[in-house]
Amino acid sequence: MKHTRKLRYLLILGCFLICPLVSRAEDQTEDVRSIDIGIVNKVNGSVHGFELGAVNEVKKDFIGFQAAVFYNDVEEGMHGFQLGIVNHAGSLNGVQIGVLNFNDDTRYLGFFPFINAAF
After folding, report:
1. What is the pLDDT of residue 74?
2. What is the rounded CA–CA span in Å between residue 19 and residue 99?
3. 115: Cβ–Cβ under 8 A, 6 or more apart, which residues?
4. Residue 103 near residue 96, CB atoms below 8 Å
5. Got the DSSP string for 3-71?
6. Residue 100 pairs with which residues in a beta bridge?
7. How far apart are CA 95 and CA 30, in angstroms?
8. How far apart are alpha carbons 48 and 18 in whole angstroms?
9. Which of 29, 66, 106, 109 is the most buried (most CB within 10 A)?
10. pLDDT at 24 (0 to 100)
11. CA-CA distance, 74 to 6, in Å (whole number)?
12. Is the dihedral of CA 21, 23, 29, 30 positive or negative?
């Protein structure tokens, strides 16, 4: 009996920890002005603040710190810091750290491994 009660409490605790992350996997059509945490974060507006997830996609500008397990993508202006395996920015004013870093708005090499910076 005690084992089933402990298992039930662990499942309830796990649901409180995991369910908010899973529920954040839908599209957001408005701007985010704070913290955006989830498994897949897709924002059709701008983000000003902190974004953390497995995959982060922002359609407009991003100002702040963006960290992903796999992929960060900012289609317009990235102003700040990106950390992930693959990072992409339409234009970069900051630093990207990852295995593959892409910056579309450059006169030189648009791809750079490990670290990329533009100011």
Report:
1. 96
2. 30
3. 95, 96, 97, 101
4. yes
5. HHHHHHHHHHHHHHHHHHHHHTTSEE-S-B-SEEESSEEEESS-EEEEEEEEEEEESS-EEEEEEEEEE
6. 86, 113
7. 25
8. 25
9. 66
10. 47
11. 44
12. negative
Query: Which pLDDT tens digits describe the chain residue by residue (119 residues)?
Result: 455 555 555 555 554 454 444 434 455 667 888 888 888 999 989 999 999 999 999 999 999 999 999 999 999 999 999 999 999 999 999 999 999 999 998 766 778 899 998 88
In this structure, are residues 74 and 91 in contact, taking their beta carbons and an 8 Å threshold? no
Diameter of the chain measured on Cα atoms: 68
Q: Tokens 């298992």, residue?
A: 7
Q: Tokens 């897949």 appear where?
A: 40
Length of the chain equals 119
- Strands 86-103, 111-118: pairing kind: antiparallel
